[in-house]
Amino acid sequence: MPVPGVSIRAATAADAEPIREFDRTFCVDDLGLERTFHVVATEPGTGAVGGWGVAGPDAATAPGSFTLRLSVRPDRLGRGVGGTLLDRLLDHLRSSGATVVHVWLRELDEGVLRFYLRRGFVEYRRTCRLLLSPLAADLGAFEPLFEGVKQQGVEIVSFDTELGRGFDALGAWHRLVRAEERPSETYVQFLERAAQRWTIGGTLHFAKMGDAYVGYTSLALPYLDPGAEGDPGLVEQGYVRVSEPFRNRGIATALCARMVEVARWRGYHTIRSDVAQANAASLAVHARLGYVEAGGEVWVRKSPV
Ligand SMILES: CC(C)(COP(=O)(O)OP(=O)(O)OC[C@H]1O[C@@H](n2cnc3c(N)ncnc32)[C@H](O)[C@@H]1OP(=O)(O)O)[C@@H](O)C(=O)NCCC(=O)NCCS
C-alpha cells in the first residue's frame, strides 16, 4: 500500500554516500548486478534518501532462497519507510521465483523483530553473542581442566606440532569428520573444505586419545559486514566439536580453554563466540570459561514469500 511521502526507486551509485551517512556497513559492492536494490526517497521535493533495502539470492543455500536487508534513517523511523521498502522487495522476489526469504537481525532489537513477525516472518534461529577477554583470563585456573582430560587419556595437541613430528593429522581429522559429521565426504572434498575454513593459521587444536582425534577447534577470523572496519584485536572462537561418545567429559571446555591461551599469547583483546540459544552444552562450556553475554542475533524467514 503506498505511503504518502515515500516513493521507491532503484538505487544508483550516487546514493552510496547518503546511505553511508546512516548505515556505515553499506558498501558500493551492494549494488552488485545479480542483486536487486531499492532506496526510498522521502520528501518528494528534496529526494532525500530515507532508507535502503537490498535483496539477493542466497548463494549458500538452495535455489529459490533469498536474503534481504533493510536500513532506515534513524530520523525517518516510524513513517512507513521500512514497510514500503519491504513490500517492494517482496514483490520483486515473488516475481523472481523466490520460495523463501531470510533476514538476519544482527542485534536483538525486539522492535525490529516485531516489525518482521507482523509481516508474516517467523523466527527460526537465535544466537547469544558471548565475549571474553583473554588478557584478563586467569590461565592458572585452566590447569585443572587440562589435567581432568589428561587423566582420561586425552591430550590437547596442536595441528602444526602434530604435522611437524610426522603424524598424519589430516588423515586422523578426516576419520573423525567421516565418523559422525559427513559420512560420505571423500578425502579430497575434505581437504578442499578444510582449505576454505576461516581458521587462523597455527590455532587448530585437537583432543587426542591414542592415535585418534576425538574433538577439535580453532580460532577464526571474525565475520565482517561489507565495508565495516575490522578490529585487529578481535578474534572468533571457531567451531568446536567433540565426538558423541566422548561428550560431557570436559573435552570441549579444555579445547576452548586452550584457545583462550592461544589468543592471549597472540595479543587478542577479545574472543567472540556466537552460540545458538538452543545449544545448552556449548553455552555451558563458554560459561565455565568466563564468557559473558553481550546481545545476540536472530534469523527470521518468510515462506512462501
Ligand atoms: C558442544 C560440544 C562441543 C560440547 O562438548 P563436550 O566435550 O561434551 O563439552 P564439555 O564436556 O567440556 O562440557 C559440557 C557442558 O555442557 C553441559 N551440558 C551437556 N548437556 C547439557 C544439556 N542438555 N543441558 C545443559 N547443560 C548440558 C555439561 O554439564 C557440561 O557443563 P559443566 O562442565 O558446567 O558441567 C558437543 O556437544 C558437540 O560437539 N556438539 C556438536 C557441535 C556443536 O554444537 N558445537 C558448538 C557450536 S557453537
SSE blueprint and pairings:
Elements: E1 6-10, H1 16-22, E2 36-42, E3 49-57, E4 65-72, H2 81-95, E5 100-105, H3 110-118, E6 122-132, H4 143-150, E7 154-158, H5 159-164, H6 169-181, H7 187-196, E8 205-209, E9 212-217, E10 219-220, E11 234-237, E12 241-242, H8 251-265, E13 270-276, H9 280-289, E14 292-302
Parallel strand pairs: 4-5, 11-13
Antiparallel strand pairs: 1-2, 2-3, 3-4, 5-14, 6-13, 6-14, 7-8, 8-9, 9-12, 10-11
Helix pairs in contact: 8-9
This protein binds coenzyme A.
Q: What does this 3D model show about the protein?
A:
The chain is of the alpha+beta class. The protein has two domains: 6-98, 3-Layer(aba) Sandwich (Aminopeptidase), CATH 3.40.630; 134-268, Gcn5-related N-acetyltransferase (GNAT) (Aminopeptidase). Helices cover 30% and strands 29% of the residues. It contains nine helices and 14 strands. The protein has helices spanning 16-22, 81-95, 110-118, 143-150, 159-164, 169-181, 187-196, 251-265, 280-289, and strands at residues 6-10, 36-42, 49-57, 65-72, 100-105, 122-132, 154-158, 205-209, 212-217, 219-220, 234-237, 241-242, 270-276, 292-302. A ten-stranded mixed sheet has the order 1-2-3-4-5-14-6-13-11-10, sandwiched between helices. Helix 8 crosses helix 9. The protein binds coenzyme A (COA). The site of coenzyme A (COA) has 19 residues, from strand 12, helix 8 and helix 9. Coenzyme A binds next to strand 12, helix 8 and helix 9.
